[in-house]
Design goal:
This protein is α/β, with parallel strands linked by helices. It has 19 helices and 13 strands. Bound molecules: uracil.
Length: 460
């Protein structure tokens, strides 16, 4: 039966339930469009998106849309990998660098993680931009090479190939121009089609909530988490979502190289084979990063059968840092993915020395009290405007731009105490972010409540 795009659009517009065949037909036609078969046109695809935005999708429709998008191009064939294939995905945050620790940790414990990551989006950072600050690091890997690296090391970290989930590329760009980005149904299909195209047995989702998240309210984040869990499970992938706080940058740094530095220094600190120690204060500032890393990795290890409970999984995750195996794995992955291993190794051996911003400035407290909070989205934008992010797609990002937090919410603060250090490769880029940070950091006399980092765990 021929599927006509106009019928699909009208059915969704009128609140009818779309059949699997209608959804499949629409997405296939969208990807295969050519001069002879020009429909759906961009206008029809945009009308479809708006109809979905307004009417929503039921669980079966969402599963069908995700399935059609997932198989709209090539997929990663994980079947030659022996072992449980797992990944995690974050909906995006500030200073959110858990992927750099989690992938080598779960691989060290025996799982396989073919991690496909994204670039910075809006006020949030991107794992690929961080990794590319390692000298010679390649994030564009053909799928066969990715498979070979996962087989050898247990994980690889790369970007989406042009042929993987092409339907998302087309729809995402249209959503960006048609006011249809913020639909939980369209976000679910977009994220889950790409993750499921990795051929996963298990997936752990870090769904952020709070001022630095795309979904700022708990109820919106919870709905998104529920839809993603349901969609993953319907596709046969064991899926768990953690609702986690994004009220302040995660850990000590936010930026590009500085986030690699933070993770590498933590791995070095915990590795018994490496003679390097972080101060108590620096460890304290990274405590939330470590807590979230072990919570997420704990769930991955539990799903993969390596731990009886997620809590046991979190303990196992800590061990993978403490015996040095996660760090060894990380170095091996970089050796295979960097075109200039000697330069990469030198940078990773002394990450603080490799951090060479041209300009820096220290933001000091103007009064004493407690760090009460901030608009974390504004902090994220300040980091991007220091040079860490892009003004438009395709722009280069600065390796050494970023911020270092010297305090966390709830800390006692003395007048003139350093709160944040700003780093940039261009001194002219310091002024606006400094003003943005000054405006948003709240120091008050009352000690605030400390919010829980992991708010909820959602399973089917
Ligand atoms: N990330 C994605 O990949 N897709 C969305 O729709 C939102 C965030």
């Amino acid at each position: 039966m021929t599927i006509h795009p106009i019928d699909v659009i009208q059915h969704k517009r009128d609140g009818l339930v779309l059949s699997d065949a209608e959804i499949e037909g629409f997405i296939q036609a969208l990807v295969k469009r050519d001069a002879e078969h020009p429909t759906p046109t961009d206008a029809q695809a945009a009308a479809f998106l708006m109809a979905v935005f307004v009417r929503g999708l039921n669980a079966q429709e969402l599963a069908a849309l995700t399935h059609a998008m997932r198989f709209s191009g090539e997929v990663f064939d994980s079947s030659p990998l022996q072992g449980f294939v797992v990944d995690k995905h974050s909906t995006g945050g500030v200073g959110d660098k858990t992927s750099l620790l989690i992938a080598p940790i779960v691989a060290a414990a025996g799982l396989k993680d073919p991690m496909i990551s994204g670039r910075s989006l809006g006020h949030t950072g991107g794992t690929l931009d961080k990794l590319e600050t390692i000298p010679g690091f390649r994030t564009q890997l053909p799928l066969e090479e990715m498979l070979a690296i996962v087989r050898k090391v247990g994980f690889a970290m790369a970007g989406q190939t042009p042929k993987l989930v092409p339907a998302d590329r087309i729809l995402y760009e249209l959503r960006d121009h048609t006011g249809t980005v913020e639909s939980p149904y369209l976000i679910t299909a977009s994220i889950m089609s790409k993750k499921l195209a990795e051929g996963l047995n298990g997936l752990v989702l870090d769904v952020k909530t709070g001022s630095g998240a795309f979904m700022q309210r708990d109820e919106d984040a919870r709905l998104l988490a529920r839809l993603m869990v349901e969609t993953g499970e319907l596709a046969g992938t064991k899926t768990v979502a953690l609702l986690t706080a994004m009220d302040q940058p995660l850990g000590r740094f936010a930026g590009n190289w500085v986030e690699v530095q933070e993770c590498v220094e933590l791995m070095q600190h915990f590795s018994p084979q490496i003679d390097f120690t972080l101060s108590e204060e620096k460890l304290r500032l990274s405590a939330d990063l470590l807590e979230l890393t072990h919570a997420l990795a704990g769930h991955m290890l539990h799903l993969g059968g390596k731990a009886a409970t997620p809590e046991d999984g979190a303990d196992l995750s800590e061990w993978m840092l403490l015996d040095g195996s996660a760090y060894r794995n990380f170095l091996e992955m970089v050796e295979l993915q960097s075109d200039s291993w000697e330069a990469a190794r030198a940078a990773l051996e002394r990450p603080a020395e490799f951090h060479r911003p041209a300009a820096m400035r220290v933001l000091e407290a103007q009064s004493g009290g407690y760090l009460a909070g901030m608009d974390c989205r504004q902090v994220g934008w300040a980091v991007q405007r220091l040079g860490a992010g892009r003004a438009k797609p395709g722009d280069p990002v600065s390796a050494h731009a970023g911020i270092e937090m010297h305090v966390k919410i709830g800390d006692r603060i003395e007048k003139r105490q350093p709160l944040i250090t700003l780093y940039s490769e261009d001194p002219d880029l310091l002024h606006e972010p400094e003003a943005m940070l000054r405006e948003t950091i709240r120091v008050e006399q009352e000690m605030p409540d400390r919010a829980k980092l992991v708010r909820e765990v959602l399973r089917r």
